[in-house]
Design a protein that fits this description.
By secondary structure, this protein is of the alpha/beta class. The chain has 15 helices and 20 strands.
Length: about 450
């Protein structure tokens, strides 16, 4: 019996896939089809697949060509599979011509001519492009332009800003550059907002009222009432409102949360997160100080994210300790927030102009999870126990700081009208409430 094996993502199974499987089957008596896992696809740059792994596997099964389906999960697995299943022929599309010649040491390698003019990428890109507009003037928006190029189905249409003179060349070169938000919203399907925190509420509200989808850098609003209003407005207008905290879309961070839920370190008794940077206030820009991102607005949502996702939002009490810049009433150069929950505690330290070790530590009754600096770009973490022999290390590739995965989730939510968001509404409300308490001097100690 001649055994044949082939591999692929097989997203949105189409005629080209079916022809390749048909010809692969004809090469022998028994065909094994390897379907790449979501995580492995991410390492290969395929980040916005339209179908889940289970959907792709089921599509292959229904063709009737596969005698066996395996999941490809790691680099080098092809050699392991060829040896494990005593494969005689490895085959793949001719667009990989020569790439897999190293497998000739283990079996015969055949490159099959692909069906011309048909590809999953082409089908995805043929879908209606989402015209995404940028709102704000921060240099961070340059990253959105760059990362959007990795996401099929998204096109950056332009930017709306009150400070066009501050834009980089790449942002100035966008097809639309304006300071009129009303006109701007008429030319886009959705907006990414990264303006001054105090402007978020009104800008998000205006976009939602015009039926536009919104991806807004956290915080959505500076008080709980406004934040809740925005979510209700999005619901009533049948559009997506998504809070942008890129850490939430890191694969490693998501795995960390799952391991905690599985009880890997027992009961969590403490969460400690630190996020700081040494950018001086004067170096930020020439804009008014009260329009700048202070420490709590810049880093607070990121630092609060693991606290609320791990321990929930029902804390018993809190203290906010802030060091305020002498030239401003509310520009904190450093803030520490201490929480007491029914059975645990947490602390968040944030700073602009103050530097500390940017790590995340989650302490439990059986062990602890350690994420090294900068933990908010989570691609690696460790689970540590009393006996070092039991320690485990985990690494998951992170591309584009998680921004591209964030854009993919936003796009998929819009396309399917199903939420793919990683940040629940109650967490957004809790973040806004912390900001509200800070500005209202509630539970705040100034140093």
């Amino acid at each position: 019996m001649i055994k044949v094996i082939t591999y692929g993502t097989f997203d949105m199974l189409h005629y080209g896939h079916i022809r390749l499987l048909e010809r692969a089957k004809a090469l022998g008596d028994y065909l094994i089809v390897g379907v790449t896992s979501d995580d492995f696809d991410k390492t290969r740059g395929k980040i916005n697949l339209q179908q889940s792994l289970s959907e792709r596997v089921e599509a292959i099964r229904k063709t009737g060509f596969a005698d066996k389906i395996v999941i490809e999960e790691y680099e080098g697995q092809k050699i392991d599979d060829i040896k494990r299943y005593n494969i005689d022929i490895f085959t793949v599309g001719s667009d990989w011509e020569g790439y897999f010649d190293y497998l000739k040491e283990y079996c015969k390698v055949i490159y099959l001519e692909r069906t011309k003019g048909i590809s999953s990428s082409g089908i995805r890109s043929e879908k209606a492009l989402l015209k995404l507009g940028l709102v704000g003037s921060a240099s961070f928006l340059e990253k959105i332009v760059k990362e959007s190029s990795y996401v099929n189905g998204v096109k950056i249409s332009g930017i709306c800003t009150d400070y066009p003179e501050s834009l980089s060349k790449s942002l100035k070169d966008l097809s639309i550059v304006t300071d009129n938000l009303d006109d701007f919203l008429c030319n886009v399907d959705a907006v990414y907002i990264h303006s001054f925190p105090k402007a978020h509420y009104l800008q998000v509200k205006k976009a939602l009222l015009k039926g536009k989808h919104v991806l807004c850098e956290s915080p959505l609003a500076l008080n709980r009432k406004d934040c809740f209003e925005l979510y209700k407005l999005a619901e009533n207008n049948h559009v997506i409102l998504m809070e942008a905290i890129k850490t939430a879309y890191s694969t490693a961070y998501q795995r960390l949360l799952l391991m905690l839920k599985a009880g890997k370190i027992g009961h969590v008794v403490s969460v400690d997160a630190t996020c700081t940077s040494l950018k001086s206030i004067t170096a930020l820009s020439d804009f008014e100080l009260d329009k700048k991102w202070n420490s709590l607005a810049t880093w607070g949502p990121t630092g609060l994210l693991p606290v609320f996702q791990i321990l929930g939002t029902s804390f018993k009490c809190k203290n906010i300790i802030s060091h305020i810049d002498k030239n401003s009433e509310k520009f904190d150069t450093f803030t520490k927030i201490e929480f007491v929950f029914p059975n645990s505690v947490a602390s968040v330290k944030v700073g602009r102009g103050v530097k500390s070790e940017g790590e995340l530590v989650v302490s439990g009754t059986k062990g602890y999870i350690y994420v090294p600096s900068p933990w908010w770009k989570t691609d690696y973490f460790e689970i540590r126990y009393e006996n070092p022999v039991d320690n485990k290390r985990y690494f998951y590739q992170l591309d584009g700081e998680g921004i591209r995965y964030e854009l993919v989730s936003f796009l998929k939510s819009i396309q399917t009208n199903t939420t793919y968001l990683k940040i629940d509404q109650d967490i957004s409300l809790a973040i806004s409430e912390i900001l509200q308490d800070f500005y209202d001097d509630k539970d705040v100690i100034f140093i």
